[in-house]
Amino acid sequence: MSARHSLPDSVSFISVPPQLATSFSGFTVDPSIPMPVELSAAGDLSSLGWEMIVSGMLRVLAYQPDHVHAAYYRDFVLAVKPDIAGELSQTGILKARNGDHELAEEIFLALRGLYPEAPEPLLNLAVLYEDMADALERTGKPEDADEERERAFGCYKGILAMDPPFPEGWLNAGYFHLKSRNYDKAREIFEFYCTLGQDEDKTAKAREIAARLATRSGADALFKEAYDYIRMGDEERGIAKALEFTQAQPGVWNGWFLVGWGRRRLERWADARDAFIRAMELGADEVDILNELAICEMELGLMDQSRQRLERALRKEPDNVKIISNLGVVARRQGRLDEAAGFFRTVLEFEPGDQLASDQLAELGQDGAAH
Residue 369: what pLDDT? Predict the structure, then answer.
């Protein structure tokens, strides 16, 4: 387990005096089992209470779920706080939405340790790791983003192995693989999700995606090869493969998106713009396409066009911080500094830890506080 998932130093194990071997809520305290407690900053045990003990046990379950006394700690926590699952879940989701990823992760890990057979904590972790990967990608840290996606992938593997199947987990896993351009796997997952017969609207959407993916399965290997080359930094070879794909699938816009993506990474702005426009001519109207095209136009000095693409993308996804941040960059380059600062402050409202927005505000001589 990585250092990030190590038991904090603030947790200590204490011995329970035999006279405290009491029973409550059908649970009996065993004095022979050390009790983990969450100490104060001063390491003070004078005010030892249930909250310190429960907190200590939750941290053990989060970071050492296979601890020899894990089952005892689970029973203890649930006896003291039988409604803790809902309380922790709501707090974890709120922290994740507010950009406090570290605390949200600890809460979901604790829930997973508390309910090792339940799928919901694992799904919450998977979604959190995806969000963390997206945030790292936006701040120019692709390697760190890949690590978070690997964590998400591990969570989804666990979810797909559960019996009985967890429908919501299968649906999310399908979208995860779709986003990763693993189209064969995504189609397989969506097709199985459709057999579970849960939400009619979601099932219809999954069936539509699976059918669309089936029509292009013959070219998937070539497409994925092109995507992998570009993602791994061999843009030239990836672009060549993507161009092969466009010849094999002339009516499909995705290949031109890859061509544009590879060219954009090589800072061949005009060529990349041509590829993205070709993708749009073939029916692409995705937020990612609009954003990539806007970046190229920004670098080519076509600020009005860039802004129009981003505004169109924002109408599709009003809370997409990547789009809002790029609108800030365009506004700044156009000299609309107060407007630019407003965009960057909005980014920080969605993701308080966004370094790019903080740096931009600092360069503009403003802080991240709302005005």
Answer: 45
* Structural domains present in the chain: 3-80 (no CATH), 228-284 (1.25.40.10), 295-371 (1.25.40.10)
Length of the chain: 371
Start-end of H helices in the chain: 50-63, 70-80, 84-97, 101-114, 119-138, 142-160, 167-179, 183-195, 200-214, 217-231, 235-248, 254-265, 269-281, 287-299, 303-316, 321-333, 337-350, 355-363
Q: Report residue 123's pLDDT band, with 50, 70 and 90 as the boundaries.
A: very high
pTM for this model (two decimals): 0.60
Q: How many angstroms separate the CA atoms of 86 and 4, rounded?
A: 25
Weakest mean pLDDT among 13-22, 119-128, 244-253, 283-292: 13-22
Token readout for 155 is 């969570």
Q: How many CB atoms lie within 10 A of CB 143?
A: 7
Alpha-carbon span 144 to 136, nearest angstrom: 7
Sign of the four-CA dihedral 75, 78, 84, 85: positive
Give dist(CA 39, CA 56) in Å, integer: 8
Q: What angle do CA 296, 300, 301 make, to 5 degrees?
A: 120
In whole angstroms, give the CA distance from residue 119 to residue 130: 17
- The number of beta carbons lying within 10 Å of the beta carbon of residue 18 is 9
3-class DSSP state of 14: strand
